[in-house]
Write a structure and sequence with these properties.
Layout lengths: L3 E7 L3 E8 L4 E8 L7 E6 L2 E6 L5 H15 L8 E8 L10 E2 L2 H9 L8 H14 L5 E5 L9 H4 L5 H7 L8 H15 L7 E7 L3 E7 L2 E5 L21 H10 L3 H10 L2 H6 L4 H9 L3 H25 L4 E5 H6 L1 H8 L11 H5 L6 E2 L8 E4 L4 H15 L1
Parallel strand pairs: 1-6, 6-8, 9-12, 12-14
Antiparallel strand pairs: 1-2, 2-3, 3-4, 4-5, 7-8, 9-10, 10-11, 13-14
Bound molecules: adenosine-5'-diphosphate.
């Protein structure tokens, strides 16, 4: 069997994984979920069939052991899979990691020190790393950070105009997320455009449950909408995106709500959910079509925010070769794509309605053939990007 990389994405209650060979083919994929709850669930699709199992999964260690069992049952056998690396998705690399890195004890310690920047994500990523290093002790492990791609941002883009000590003592600055996805999509975009990546300027909108937009110049992130945390920027499924930071103190004074509770509401009860009563964009459309004014407003606010950022990043880049849509909403929602770019013809940005409406899974143009600025839809593939990066780092040793 060809050389393979096992890609692990450990959340607090789940482990997502894929086994990817050196041609980029997925040999197996699966999900262990509801880890730590009374009823756990494991789904695995491999070369020899599928496994579906409902049984408690007390922790990440037993989750990974159950996954190993599923590999044995439904293939491929990991022992003969030619595993050359395990690639771990890690959410926050702070300003310590600008590239993927071979994991050793010191790297683990550094990721631990970054936990205050990502208290929900980094601990679960660390659990996964520690357990997987024990189980797959003979292969190199590589950490691939969501923030790393954005470490190229210039100081004026990542600096908040707040007391300097906040950055020095508490790491308060813009980091940005979705970096692995943006890196992948940017390479694919240059290929589709037939341009040298080093001579390509892009605005990449990653619109999933979380959503962000990034200005990419010559393969480097130069600005991105998410900040210290993934809360800043675009309207998302349950997150507000940009708001006046004074709102937290205002609610504290008037409603006696703690900063913790406001933070929780801005992360989990805001965005589309707050305005439309649903966080899934498909449901928001259904409600808007049936005359729900809250859902219509949610769509207006979502697309307007996106358009504002496209204008801002156009100004940041000066010349834009393409605007790229990716992730769940970006890849599937023709209406959001058309509405968010509506009225930008004077900037050379146009969407062709027939191309936009085509339900195609392949990377494609949705702008007219003669447009100044191409508009592209490119399915993202973070796992493949993690596998590629892990393979490269492992080979370097
Ligand atoms: P995640 O951020 O969890 O990786 P995805 O990139 O899978 O999310 O995007 C999930 C979101 O994509 C869903 O919440 C849904 O709103 C949206 N989505 C998926 N399919 C469609 C569709 N056909 N039309 C509009 N939105 C869609």
């Amino acid at each position: 069997m060809a050389d393979t990389v096992l890609v692990l994405n450990c959340g607090s209650s789940s482990i997502k994984y894929q086994l990817i060979d050196d041609t980029g083919s997925v040999l197996a994929r699966g999900l262990a979920e509801r880890i730590g709850e009374a009823s756990g669930q494991l789904s695995h699709a491999g070369t020899g069939g599928e496994v579906e199992r409902s049984e408690p999964i007390p922790d990440h260690e037993s989750g990974l052991q159950a996954i190993l069992g599923a590999f044995d049952e439904a293939g491929p056998h990991l022992a003969d899979a030619g595993l050359v690396a395990v690639g771990h998705r890690v959410v926050h690399g702070g300003d310590r990691f600008a590239d993927p890195v071979l994991i050793d004890d010191e790297v683990v310690e550094t990721i631990r020190r970054l936990v205050p920047l990502a208290p929900l994500h980094n601990p679960a990523n660390l659990d996964g790393i520690e357990v997987a290093r024990r189980i797959f002790s003979a292969v190199p492990h590589v950490a691939v950070f969501d923030t790393a791609f954005h470490q190229t941002m210039p100081e004026h883009a990542y600096t908040y105009a707040v007391p300097r000590q906040w950055q020095r003592d508490y790491g308060v600055r813009r980091y940005g997320f979705h970096g692995t996805s943006v890196a992948y999509v940017a390479q694919e975009a240059a290929r589709l455009l037939g341009r040298e990546p080093t001579d390509t300027n892009l605005i990449v909108a990653h619109l999933g449950n979380g959503a962000s937009i990034t200005a990419v110049a010559a393969t480097h992130s130069v600005d991105t909408s998410m900040g210290l945390t993934p809360l800043e920027g675009l309207v998302m499924g349950t997150r507000s995106g940009d708001i006046d930071p004074a709102i937290t103190a205002h609610l504290g004074r008037l409603a006696g709500v703690s900063a913790e509770l406001v933070d929780e509401a801005l992360n989990r009860k805001s965005g589309l959910l707050a305005l439309a009563g649903a966080n899934d964009m498909r449901e928001v459309h259904r409600r808007a079509e049936s005359g729900d004014s809250g859902a219509s407003l949610a769509l207006d606010v979502y697309c307007y925010r996106l358009r504002k950022y496209v204008g801002a990043y156009y100004a940041v880049l000066g010349r834009v070769d393409a605007i790229v849509f990716t992730a769940g909403v970006g890849e599937n929602d023709a209406d959001v794509r058309a509405r968010s770019l509506d009225g930008l013809q004077r900037l050379g940005i146009e969407v062709d309605s027939a191309r936009n409406a085509a339900a195609d899974r392949e990377p494609r143009f949705i702008s007219p053939a003669d447009a100044d600025v191409a508009v592209l839809v490119i399915p993202t593939n973070e796992e493949l990007e993690i596998a590629r990066e892990a393979r490269t780092v492992a080979a370097r040793g």
